[in-house]
Amino acid sequence: LKIEEFQRVLELNLTGTVLPTQVFLKPMVEQKAGAIVNFSSMAAFRPMTRVTGYAAAKAGISNFTAFMATEVAKKFGEGIRVNAIAPGFFLTEQNRALLTNPDGSYTERGQDVIRQTPFGRMGRAEELCGTIQYLISDASSFVTGTVAVVDGGFNAFAM
After folding, report:
1. Catalytic choice (45, 54, 89, 90)
2. Who's near 18: CB < 8 A, 6+ residues apart?
3. Distance between CA atoms of residues 30 and 63, nearest Å
């Protein structure tokens, strides 16, 4: 574990969530309304090889989300909600080389993910939209401090 790399990933992901939360919270406090949706990850729930810093940061985001939800509700009332979404495995440019071979077939890691995802496939980015829309809408007016999982069953899978 190279501590400099670990710290860089924490800075990018965890601090990179805390700072915008502080910025966007200010006008929400003034208008006494708003919804923050942070991005956690499956790595926050289950240890995964080769992504220690990322997993620590995402677990921190889940914890920070719960903390902020409580702080904001206690200090400013029920008009501002803070939640997070935890996507499962979605094929992106960031993880493509880790999950797929140049020919498009799954790497060993990609095969492990598919084997542990009851839906048997990677997610599509647009499949996150419904959950995000719910969390920012009045339909979730009594929801705060939660991490909504969108993962095709990955987190529920057990052998």
Report:
1. 54
2. 64
3. 25
Q: Are 64 and 14 in contact (CB under 8 A)?
A: yes
Q: Tell me, yes or no, if 54 is annotated catalytic.
A: yes
Tokens of 155: 């987190």
- Cα separations (Å) of 25 from 15, 39, 73, 112, 146? 15, 16, 12, 39, 17
For residue 93, give Cα distances in angstroms to 35, 65, 96, 100. 28, 26, 5, 11
Q: What is the pTM of this model?
A: 0.93
* Residue that is written with structure tokens 């914890």 in the block: 63
Q: 156 pLDDT exceeds 90? A: yes
Residue 38 has pLDDT above 80, yes or no: yes
pLDDT digits (tens, 9 = 90+) for 69-86: 999 999 999 999 999 999
**Residue 17, SS3?**
helix
What integer pLDDT is reported at residue 148 of this predicted model? 98
